[in-house]
C-alpha cells in the first residue's frame, strides 16, 4: 500500500479549467471516497491520478515518487471502471490474467494470483465461464479481480457499482468493504451515491465544480457540514433549511418556530446574531404529543422500517423521520419538536457554517 499526494493540481480539458490548485493527501491504507454530483470533476481527478489524462499544473506523487508524467503502467495502480470492459471471447480466468500475460509474468505466478483473487471474490467456480454466462454482479467482480491481480500499490474505482441494480449494489458494497479490511490497501473510490460514500469511506472528499468543499470522516461530514452545499448533498431526505433571524439572546425566530440556541457552538469568526439559515436533519425532528411546534401533514412516504413525513411548517415544508408505524392523514395537525444538539447554522450570504 502507498500514499498519494496531489499538490496544486490543475487540469485543463479542451480549454476548460476543470480543476485548479487542488491539494489532497491520501494516506496509505485508507479508503478515500470522492463524492459529488455529475460534472464536479471527481472522475477527472481519478483519471489524472491514474495517468489517463495529463495535468496542466501541479504534481501527482504515489508512494513518495513523482508520477506526474509517468506512464499509467509505471504507477503501480489497479483501476476498475464503470463499464466492465471484459473481453467477450475470453474466459473469466483469461480476462483476469490478460494484463499479467501481456507483461510476461511467469505462469506459476499468474496462477497463484488468479487463484488467490478468485477465492477472495467467490469467482473460483466461474473461472472457465465467459462474460455472457455471468450476471451483472459477477461481471463486476471479474473487473475488480482483474485490478486486484496486479497486486498494485493503489486501487482506483470509478463508479464501479452504478450499472447494477439496488440489491447487487448493496451486496457488492459490502464485499468491497470486507475486501479493503482484508487487503488493507490504499483505495480511492469515485461515486455520486452518498450511501456508498457513507458506508465505504474512512474519509470522504466532497467536491463541487472542481473544488473540494469538505474532507472528513463520514460522521464529521454528515453531522458538521462546512457549507450549505455539503449539508444539502448528504442525507436522504436532505437536510431541512429554515430561514430566520438569530437575536442577541441567541434565540432563533422564523415564521413558525422560535427556539433557544444559546448552547450552539459558533465558529470563532461567526456572527452571533442576524439573518441565518438553520439546518436540521429529518431524524432530528420528532413528531410527538408534547412537541413545541405545530405542523400540518402534507405527505407520507412509507419506507418499511420507518416513515418519512412531510410537514407544512408555516410557509416552509420540512421532512421528518418517524420510526414507529403510526397512521398519519393528509391535512392532520401534529405537534413536533427539534433536537437542537445537532443542528447547523449557516450564513445566507457566504453559505458557510457559523
TrEMBL record:
The chain positions of domain ABC transporter read 4-234
The domain of life for this entry's organism is Bacteria
Q: Which GO terms describe its cellular component?
A: ATP-binding cassette (ABC) transporter complex, substrate-binding subunit-containing
Q: Which BP terms from GO are recorded?
A: carbohydrate transport
InterPro entries membership: AAA+_ATPase, ABC_transporter-like_ATP-bd, ABC_transporter-like_CS, ABC_transpr_MalK-like, ABC_transpr_MalK/UgpC-like, Mo/tungstate-bd_C_term_dom, NA-bd_OB-fold, P-loop_NTPase
- The answer to whether UniProt assigns keyword Transport to this entry is yes
Answer yes or no on keyword Cell membrane. yes
Q: Which UniProt keywords apply?
A: ATP-binding, Cell membrane, Membrane, Nucleotide-binding, Transport
Pfam families (alphabetical): ABC_tran, TOBE_2
**UniProt GO MF annotations:** ABC-type transporter activity; ATP binding; ATP hydrolysis activity
Q: Which PANTHER family would you find in this protein's record?
A: MALTODEXTRIN IMPORT ATP-BINDING PROTEIN MSMX (PTHR43875), OSMOPROTECTIVE COMPOUNDS UPTAKE ATP-BINDING PROTEIN GGTA (PTHR43875:SF1)
Supply the name of the protein: ABC transporter ATP-binding protein
- Species whose genome carries this gene: Undibacterium fentianense
